[in-house]
Amino acid sequence: MTKPDGSTLLNVCVIPDENASAEAVKISRSLKGNATMFTLGDGLFPHMTVYMARFSDSNIDKVVSATASALEQVSSFQCVHTGYFMTAGRYLEASYKKSDDLLELHELLINYDAALRINPGSPFNEGYFAPYSPEQQKNAEETGYDLARALYRPHVTLTRYHAGQVPKIYPAFPSAELSFDLAKVCVFKADDNGAVYELVREFKVS
Fold first, then answer.
1. 26, 72, 146, 159: least CB-packed within 10 angstroms?
2. Does residue 35 fall inside a structural domain?
3. Which residue range(s) make up the domain with 34?
4. Splitting the chain (206 residues) into consecutive groups of 10 residues, what average pLDDT does each group show?
């Protein structure tokens, strides 16, 4: 399937506070080596995707407005770090509790933003997690985001390993404090791997 012309993948994400971000960067950089494809810092920064979908470029301003309306219903809450996870796609993540507050934010963004997505019901299979499983395909058709709802996994990506180079034993991570109180949600343009590269709008949550 060809990526639709005049469209952009938008990532609506939570940005950890300064301390949690600094700790995530420190852990990520400690993993840097020939086996890793990237580490945080130097333009790559910690973020937690809450909702991501592809939109027509002509609808980006509408997505920003819809996101602002959704966030009017959100108050700050704690994002609780629960450990680390290696995905089947070789991404190492800092995992966060799938709390009622995060799920409510996730559903709000779906409710306000998903109707604006391009090609509802017939989504482009994004390269960051293709090919889709049947459940991913269902999510993508219904919401625009393949990892929505039951598959939603709050996390901050730390690095990705090259194929065949995922370590069997990980170094001991420092006892970093990666939990934080929600204060900032951003809309970013994202590349074909889902990585954010251009800020569209920043929102404060209090």
1. 72
2. yes
3. 7-204
4. 87 97 93 93 91 96 98 97 90 96 98 94 72 87 93 95 90 80 97 86 97
